[in-house]
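Customer ticket, subject: "Can you confirm the structure for NAD(+) diphosphatase?"

Message body: Hello, I'm evaluating your service for our small team and ran a test protein. I'd like someone to confirm that this is what the system normally returns, since I don't have a reference to compare against.
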Amino acid sequence: MSAFQLNGVPLLSRSVFDRAEEIRADAEALKKGWPEAKLLRVNRRGQFRFEHGALVFGAATELADEPHPAAVFLGIDGGNHLWAIRDNELTGPLIDLRGLAGGLDDFTAAVLTAANAVLNWHDKAGFNAADGAPTTAIKAGWSRVTESGYEEFPRIDPAVICLIHDGGDRVLLARQHSWPPTLFSLLAGFVEAGESLERCVEREMLEEVGLEVGEITYLGSQPWPFPRSLMLGFSAVADPEQPLVFADGEITEAHWFTRAEVAEALGVGDWSAQGEGARLLLPGSISIARTIVESWAEQES
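Agent reply: Thanks for trying us out. I re-ran your input and got the following:
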């Protein structure tokens, strides 16, 4: 069976709070909500406090008496405004988004993906790319503007991630140089300027492993705030008889695995489980790659 669909919504794509974008430019509404607002502090490494199974928010008023220009308005939950701010002096037991892995609930995923992506953008957007003019955050952190009025918005970097299979019982999985010896995943790459998503899939698969692919099918997407990407999931079919050529140097090895081998690896858990003696370890639940592989493995060939 060539075609398949995702068996669920990728973990980081589940959003269960109101982003309330309609009040980002409403200074009075933001000021009115500030006294009861909650503030999430995130350091430059993307780490935050997480205790007793929940994010640790502080009172926004501990930062300032009214909305702070360096804070980002995330939305509203339970009637409370939620904000985030970069705090490189953050202390105590800290964890990052990847570290939460399987313990990540939908609310926490939604808050952290938004907070990390926008704060990461602010870190690099202090000056206008066209003329070097300094920029100032406006609209509760969802825009930056120069003194002359030129406005910029948070950017995202689209990237494709693709499961290549043979139309039957085998799937191609690959490993980068820096990964553990038995960790394999899907192939991925950034979309270039002026390029369609489908063309990007064709180009990246050819560049990374030398395969010509067809039957390209869109599966779903997931925010990936490392630092501010959007992963667009695809599947494609290739002939296993084609030789593998690692042309761009990013991939150190790739192999065709059977559905049974993949199912066994899924049973071990994610790569951090480090199953002893396992030939194949797969990405964790935080990645759309895991959802795609699981969905393919559940199909009957």
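A couple of notes from the result: The domain at 156-298 is CATH 3.90.79.10 (Nucleoside Triphosphate Pyrophosphohydrolase). The first strand starts at residue 38 and ends at 42. Feel free to reply with more questions.
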